[in-house]
Amino acid sequence: KQLNSAQVRRMYLDFFKQHGHTEMPSRSLVPVDDPTLLWINSGVATMKQYFDGQVVPDNPRMTSSQKSIRTNDIENVGKTARHHTMFEMLGNFSVGDYFKNEVIPWAWELLTSDDWFGFDPEKLYITYYPEDKDAYNLWKQVGVAEDHLIADKENFWDIGQGPSGPDTEIFYDRGQAMNNLPEDDPESYPGGENERYLEIWNIVFSQFNHTPEDTYEPLPQKNIDTGMGLERVVSIFENAPTNFETDLFMPIIEQTQALSAGKVYGQDKTDDIQFKIIADHIRSITFAISDGALPSNVGRGYVIRRLLRRSVVAGKKLGIEESFLASLVPTVGKIMQDYYPAVLENADYIASVVKAEEDRFSATLNGGLNLLNSVIDEVKAAGETTIDGQTAFKLYDTYGFPVELTQEYAEDEGLQVDVAGFKAAMTEQQVRARNARDTDNGMGVQTGLWTDFETPSEYVGYTDLEVSDAKLI
Ligand code: ATP
Ligand code: MG
Ligand code: MG
Ligand code: MG
């Protein structure tokens, strides 16, 4: 079956609408009234108020395609076939309404019926929680072969306290040719860290309350929360080796290619990673700004800044010397116009924010790269493996390099960065900055970078997915 991204999204939502669900809009990436979460990172993150009982939804059955940002996957981008910083999570939700008996047959129908996705059942593998006999029996009843049903004790969703329960995950076998591991590698199974068995859907049965006493009490109200990665499913329909060779990303990659110094996508592994980083990050940047976030040195703003500067360096590696990111913004808008018309409408504004930030960084980029490369040479020549904290701080403070960018750059050369030393230098600088706030301290074009620095705030995610966000911010 041939379906493009807009058709896959529509089909999923229509399927669940036919089963009595209300289609909910894709909410802002910026969480509303939820200081515990930096970004919306899943469909259910927008439904917290229904799941914890604070608000009763008009309809207990809801479906959505929710834009989501996960910073814990930044470093996976371009390296795995399947991870993005921003992706869309298709989901269906039951707030105390239907449960396993309904959701498992529906999932199987959507995936395998010729009226819907029409996937070959031979290609699908299911993992379930070993003690969850109900899920096992239901999957068998709908026709899943025994050797495609895999017990895995990892299949339990638990955030420490509150609603929790077993889950079940659906994998699509992309074939050994797509794998990055030998067939007999112990990790090469559905649920393992490999590129053959692609996790496409996660269905959570929240049926227990994890109490402060660490017991699991059955919940009076049982809920369903599911998440399917749109980009991954589209890669299957478009028979693309990774999520990137699909209608969601290729126009951005093609445009970047035209801007590059004769680089061609698909010819060199290292170049391809840069193309993918740019195509991925510009989507997150564009959508985040469209939803009202702005680059800065704290919290969400720092994430945008980090993604944007990482993209500029990726462009540099492709031989792009001019500002280019802003020109990709309307392309993102056009690709996503169908479901997110506001992005194209805001494109001029978004592009102007991107341009200002890119120009600011570009002004010091070459100086920073020169410093970084010469320090890398020195460290290597001395037979050492660590870039000191002062250098990392100078790169940050004078040249605008997020420390994570320095770390990645160093890692490519087999080196590390003394992050503790970086933080110490940062603290020292903040103290000095406070004393000299209104004077010209001669720090050059990037002084503004730290003057708006704030005290770190602790972010504890609704799920544990966002913990890494707090890292240095
Ligand atoms: P993975 O194990 O591949 O990292 P996950 O188990 O962390 O995925 P879930 O939290 O179960 O992901 O999210 C539900 C679905 O959303 C996944 O089954 C997958 O299809 C999709 N998904 C999760 N993270 C990403 C990402 N970074 N980029 C694209 N799709 C994602
Ligand atoms: Mg993950
Ligand atoms: Mg997983
Ligand atoms: Mg999962």
TrEMBL record:
tRNA-binding recorded as keyword: yes
Gene Ontology MF terms: alanine-tRNA ligase activity; aminoacyl-tRNA deacylase activity; ATP binding; catalytic activity, acting on a protein; transferase activity; tRNA binding; zinc ion binding
Keywords per UniProt: Aminoacyl-tRNA synthetase, ATP-binding, Coiled coil, Cytoplasm, Ligase, Metal-binding, Nucleotide-binding, Protein biosynthesis, RNA-binding, tRNA-binding, Zinc
Biological processes annotated in GO: alanyl-tRNA aminoacylation
Annotated cofactor note: Binds 1 zinc ion per subunit.
E.C. code: 6.1.1.7
UniProt-annotated location(s): Cytoplasm
Domain notes: Consists of three domains; the N-terminal catalytic domain, the editing domain and the C-terminal C-Ala domain. The editing domain removes incorrectly charged amino acids, while the C-Ala domain, along with tRNA(Ala), serves as a bridge to cooperatively bring together the editing and aminoacylation centers thus stimulating deacylation of misacylated tRNAs.
Function (record text): Catalyzes the attachment of alanine to tRNA(Ala) in a two-step reaction: alanine is first activated by ATP to form Ala-AMP and then transferred to the acceptor end of tRNA(Ala). Also edits incorrectly charged Ser-tRNA(Ala) and Gly-tRNA(Ala) via its editing domain.
Family to which this protein belongs: Belongs to the class-II aminoacyl-tRNA synthetase family.
Descriptive protein name: Alanine--tRNA ligase
Organism whose genome encodes this protein: Limosilactobacillus equigenerosi DSM 18793 = JCM 14505
Residues of the full protein shown: 5 to 477 of 883
